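Ticket 4471: requesting a sanity check on a complex prediction with nicotinamide-adenine-dinucleotide. Repro inputs:
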Amino acid sequence: MRITIIGSGYVGTTIAACFAELGHEVTAIDIDEAVVETLNDGRAPITEPGLDELLEKHIGNHLTATTSYDAVPESDVTFLAIGTPSNENGSIELTGLEAAAEATGDALADKSDRHLVIIKSTVTPPSIGAVLEPVVSKGANGNDAIEVGMNPEFLREGSAVSDFLNPDKLVFGTRSAWATDRLHDVFEPLIGTESSVVETDPETAAMIKYANNAFFASKISLVNDLGNICKEFGLDAYEVMDAIGLDDRISDRFLRSGVGWGGSCFPKDVNAIIAAARKEGYDPAVLEAAVAVNDRQPRRMLELLTSHVALEDARIAVLGLSFKPDTDDIRNSRAIPVVQSLLDQGVELAAYDPVAADEMAALFPTIEYADSAGDALFESDGALILTDWDEFSDLESEFDAMATPVVIDGRRCINRRDGIIYEGLTW
Ligand code: NAD
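Returned structure tokens:
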């Protein structure tokens, strides 16, 4: 099929490369010329395992990148993969997506064949009928050959390509059998025994995405809450969670307690569904508690640090800046409140991350960014481990070069325990 994808960020680039891999003819459209240039060089504008290889393979033949919407009417289906960031009150900011939706409609104003516009971005259920469908229609001068649907994305950064190509489920939210059939055509190579297809309306599809992320975020916050209690009792939360994970009603996934969830999705999506529920007059108490526990975890790490190190004139190493390993994404990384708090207290910081230092430097330009974990640890008075990058598990003798070897591990990824003062956040 001929597919246009509007927005070439984490989601747009991944799905563009993967659709080309599945045999479709794909045009990736982004307003950012630098992004388009990078894509046309066969490179991803973001760090994501396997993505560069797919782009290199398909760019120039099954995949083209451009800033122009001209390819939209020539395609069969258009996916909108524009960011929907948080406003101050937690609600989602739709301006960027609205602009892209209107421009897509505009490009389709004269198309007589039916065309499907699929929202890939995460949006609240009411925003589809109240905002996005009218905006597409307005751009298209009311052309009723255009139908809007919702196909939420469940890929995770760090394993986006493999997640997209091996989905647990595909959710098709449409208003007609024709649109559902088109989505079957698009995803046909992925629809097998391993993945379930859920056919529903666009609003339910949008809610499934929020319910999914709200469930995960709340599960982790519950595990972190229980982990904090374990720590207070002098117990190892991981031993407790290994046991409860044996219950198949709970499962052993997402039971690793630590410094909490971040990234571009969980915080934004949980806050957005809280804000949308409040707008309807409902107070979502469990979700609010999940956010409160998450906000508390970085503070608990700092409390553990200050129980061993006087921060005045101290040099502290911060290892791990991305919100999780295998990505350079620092959006809502737990490292941000930690770095901010230490800076507010006048602490000298040496930060290290294998890929996310440049992103963090844009936010905190004054701190030292070391070339290796060893360099960050050298002569430091304490270390905070905020991302479980694989290479941190190999750190051994590097801790001996610290001025005082105090290690506060927020991810349970440090193997060395002897000869250092080691504190796990929940163990
Ligand atoms: P992103 O910010 O990385 O990318 C958005 C891209 O859209 C940018 O490259 C930007 O230049 C481009 N853009 C903005 N306005 C445009 C316009 N008018 N025309 C063309 N391009 C335009 O966003 P993302 O992380 O890929 O997220 C996209 C959506 O997918 C969000 O709603 C997000 O919640 C959802 N989502 C994200 C993930 C994830 O892991 N990142 C997973 C599932 C769902």
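Notes from triage: The pocket of nicotinamide-adenine-dinucleotide is lined by residues 6-12, 29-32, 35, 81-84, 96, 99-100, 103, 120-122, 153, 155, 157, 264-265 (CB under 6 Å). Leaving this open until the requester confirms.
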